[in-house]
Design a protein that fits this description.
By secondary structure, the chain is of the alpha+beta class. Helices cover 61% and strands 9% of the residues. The strands form four sheets. Strands 3, 4, 5, 6 and 8 form a five-stranded antiparallel β-sheet that branches. It has a four-stranded mixed β-sheet with strand order 7-12-11-9, with helices on one face. Helix 11 crosses helix 16, helix 13 runs antiparallel to helix 14 and helix 18 packs antiparallel against helix 19. The chain is globular.
């Protein structure tokens, strides 16, 4: 029986591979036909509109939809990556839709029982028997009632979906590698790495334990925020293929008339939704990556309930600081601050073309200068800035693209409910608070401690590193040719460099010690004296070095 199952699975994989191959072959054939005027009449009708052949981007969208859920998800993520695809193609990819038929009710119930390891009646008093309340590419959702009386939703994964997606991912990676081999210029955008990254994200989304963990984490973040509702998750019933969480309902978040009819305030709803996202981003660096209106419900007192936590984004502290710096630079019209923030995002401390980059940022600010800060389209300006930085082939962290999408979505949500609401005005205090934390005494002390620790590690490890180099040289394991006509000059240079390094380390320790003493020592003037003396000594030492030059 087990052998028959594997034979069947092999045939399914072969069939899927042939389907993808046939679909892609058809796409390339249609492309060839469309480029030959005499043969355009042979292009199938589905690739035409009003007798004219659709554009290549439109044809590609249709092919992606035909290839199924994995390719649709891949295209949807590509739509948010201006560093990989053109704006024209991104616009078309944003139209991608995945229509899937739900599996039968009996099959779904059997899958739920397999995950529970027990009959349904042991945990549920009822499950909606008419139809599922939602079907997606990976799973489908049913409403149920626990034996304890709570209403819940059960998200159960579709059968064989993991093997299908793994096969699609292998084929995607193969196609990406073939493209890179055919067009070496694509290595600059690392499309193979992007496919790998997409595969990891999709695999995490397929494991419902990760989504359950996300819900618990958001629940902790918002447990004291009255205008945000995070549903309870029943972790004891969750498995990698099944999620059980509290059933939440409410008014549609994008219907102004319905909100008003239920006595809700659309302006307050918009502001609450924006503040929820800003708390996620600026205070926690962990945010819902798909906050569109379909994932939001409005409850009494203008409270917003969120669902669908499968896709989340995380930000490093440096990425949060980038966003804060960008906002303050935008608020003050300072191109230098924005440039520094963008280079920090790209982990570039020294950038030869910084002046050129700053010119383009200043030009962008000038174009938007006719608007007051509160009236600016924040997500548009942020997107423009990212496009400018991409001209220099600098790498942007993948989480920033999720952030761009989330900010654009919530800005659109706010504008739809309350056209006069200003995202830049609401976002600025959060950025200012983050900057204050960055330069608080505790934060500065922590950085000083890290610096001292790094120098300490350098001093501690330096003799061992030298011994290792000498050992390798002695045993012929370190070979490096140096042609010097004057060995005495080399010896003097080595002594000079060693003395300079020692002096710099000593100055760093004295300066750091002065700052620590000025913060905590009593009286504080001792620390100030140390800082002043160290600064004077450093200036004198620098002048001495320059005079030698």
């Amino acid at each position: 029986m087990f052998k028959i199952f594997h034979i069947r699975l092999s045939f399914l994989r072969l069939g899927r591979g042939l389907h993808i191959l046939a679909t892609l072959s058809g796409f390339f054939i249609v492309n060839w036909l469309s480029q030959n005027g005499a043969l355009r009449g042979l292009v199938p009708a589905r690739y035409k509109r009003n007798g004219l052949v659709l554009s290549m981007a439109e044809r590609l969208r249709l092919v992606i939809e035909e290839l199924g859920p994995t390719f649709v998800k891949f295209g949807q993520i590509l739509a948010d990556r201006p560093d990989i695809v053109s704006d024209k193609l991104r616009i078309e990819l944003k139209k991608l839709q995945s229509e899937v038929e739900p599996v039968s009710h009996n099959v779904a119930m059997k899958l739920i029982e397999e995950e529970l390891g027990a009959p349904l009646e042991r945990y549920f008093s009822s499950i909606s028997a008419d139809a599922c309340i939602g079907a997606a590419s990976i799973g489908q959702v049913y409403k149920a009632t626990l034996n304890t009386g709570e209403d819940v939703v059960i998200k159960i994964q579709r059968p064989d979906i993991q093997s299908k997606i793994e096969l699609d991912l292998h084929l995607l990676k193969y196609l990406a590698q073939q493209l890179v081999d055919e067009y070496p210029g694509l290595t600059a955008i690392d499309i193979v790495g992007f496919v790998d990254e997409f595969g990891e994200t999709l695999k995490m989304e397929m494991n419902y334990i990760n989504e359950a963990s996300n819900i618990v984490r958001f629940g902790e973040i918002f447990k004291t925020v009255p205008y945000c509702k995070i549903p309870k998750v029943y972790t004891e019933l969750c498995t990698p293929q099944m999620l059980v969480m509290e059933y939440v309902t409410g008014a549609p978040a994008d219907n102004v008339a319905q909100l008003a009819a239920q006595g809700l305030d659309p302006v307050q709803v918009a502001e609450n939704g924006i503040r929820i996202m800003l708390i996620m981003i600026f205070k926690n660096g962990f945010f819902h990556a798909d906050p569109h209106a379909g994932n939001l419900f409005v409850q009494p007192d203008n409270r917003i309930a969120l669902i669908d936590f499968g896709m989340v984004g995380t930000l490093k502290p440096s990425q949060m600081q980038f966003l804060a710096g960008f906002i303050l630079g935008l608020a003050t019209g300072n191109a230098n601050i924005i440039t520094d923030a963008l280079l920090t995002l790209c982990d570039k401390k020294f950038f030869a073309e910084k002046e050129d980059l700053q010119f383009y940022i200043h030009d962008m600010l000038t174009r938007h200068g006719s608007f007051q800060y509160e009236q600016m389209n924040f997500s548009q300006i942020l997107n423009e800035s990212i496009k400018i930085i991409l001209r220099y082939e600098l790498k942007i962290p993948a989480s920033i693209y999720l952030l761009l999408k989330a900010i654009a979505t919530i800005e659109k949500f706010g504008a739809q409910l309350a056209p006069g609401l200003s995202l830049p005005a609401i976002i600025r205090p959060y950025a200012e608070e983050l900057v204050k934390q960055r330069y608080s005494p505790a934060s500065i002390a922590g950085e000083i401690y890290d610096t001292i620790r790094d120098y300490g590690a350098l001093i501690r490890d330096f003799p061992n590193e030298i011994n290792e180099i000498l050992y390798k040289m002695k045993h012929g394991k370190l070979i490096h040719e140096i042609h010097m006509s004057d060995q005495a000059t080399l010896a003097r240079a080595a002594r000079s460099i060693g003395a300079s390094i020692s002096s710099v380390i000593l100055l760093a320790f004295l300066f750091a010690g002065g700052i620590i003493m000025s913060l905590w020592a009593q009286p504080a003037w001792i620390g100030h004296v140390m800082i002043g003396a160290t600064s004077l000594f450093a200036l004198g030492y620098l002048a001495r070095l320059m005079s030698k030059e």
